Amino acid sequence: MIGHLTLPAGVDRRPAVLLGPEGMGLSDVERRRADALAELGYIALAFDLHGGRYLGDPEEMLARCIPLLADPDRMRGIGHAALDVLRTEPRTDPDRIAAIGYGTGGAVGLELGRDGVNLRAIGTVNALTTGRPGEAARIRCPVWAGVGSEDPIMPPAQREAFTAEMQAAGVDWRLAVYGGALHAFHHPPVDHPTVPGVGYHPRHAQRAWRDVVDLLAECLPVTEDLGHVPGKHAGAGH
Q1: Which residues contact 210 (CB under 8 A, 6 or more apart)?
Q2: Which residues form the Dienelactone hydrolase domain (predicted)?
Q3: Least enclosed by CB within 10 Å: which of 20, 132, 184, 231?
């Protein structure tokens, strides 16, 4: 697996974000998002799904992703491998990590939560996947999910199953439905065929990114430990 690790300026320890790509695999879209997170002060690892390959052929992508999405242990294996790399970075604060993911990469993040991993937040777009019965109770952080209202791959019945699972498990969850948007509405157009039901929605893509950044600001603030960093001065309230 070949990921894309970005570091913010400075030498101090920082919170970190695991960033998962759509089923096609790691592309410049996710690399740019990781770079943007570094500019906000996070360490970010955009992780790989397909051993360094980007699957632009929809049939090949589905042939790999459908079995993967049906195998929670394989998804967890990919997620843990990426998490190990992120934790190995000396500047990563291992107690302050969030998982953000799109499509298949979002499902990987959810499975890490269902595996009981200590995450500060899980944020997903187009990844309303349900897990094995009862395992969502092991999720230890808030979960935010976004989906397009017209997404045929994540239709209303799938939304309901996902939210029912989260609610039954006592998870702190939120679901944002972006009106008129299709599947992968956040992803700029690509120069190869895609599966039916995919479409870019620029306005909602910007809104979903702001929602993700807001989730991180709430659950994984960059400035959380400024009072303990030499040379920094925290405000009142100690």
Answers
A1: none
A2: 4-218
A3: 231
Question: At residue 19, what is the residue type?
Answer: L
First-to-last CA distance in the chain? Answer: 44
pLDDT tens, 116-160?
999 999 999 999 999 999 999 999 999 999 999 999 999 999 999
Give the alpha-carbon dihedral of 65, 123, 232, 229, to 10 degrees: -60
Q: Are 165 and 137 in contact (CB under 8 A)?
A: no
Answer whether 101's CB lies under 8 Å from 112's CB.
no
3-class SS of residue 195:
coil
3-state SS class at 183 = strand
Residue 226 has pLDDT above 70, yes or no: no
Greatest Cα-to-Cα distance within the chain, rounded to the nearest angstrom: 57
Q: How far is CA 100 from the centre of its chain?
A: 2
Average pLDDT estimate for 181-202: 94
Q: How does 123-155 read in b/e, with b if 16+ C-beta sit within 10 Å? A: bbbbbbbbbeeebbeebebbbbbbbbebbebbe
Give the three-state DSSP class for 100.
Answer: strand
Are 174 and 142 in contact, with CB atoms under 8 Å apart? yes
pTM over 0.90: yes
- Residue 193, exposed/middle/buried by CB under 10 A (0-12, 13-18, 19+)? exposed
Tokens of 204: 């909602």
The 10s digit of each residue's pLDDT in 25-56 is 999 999 999 999 999 999 999 999 999 999 99
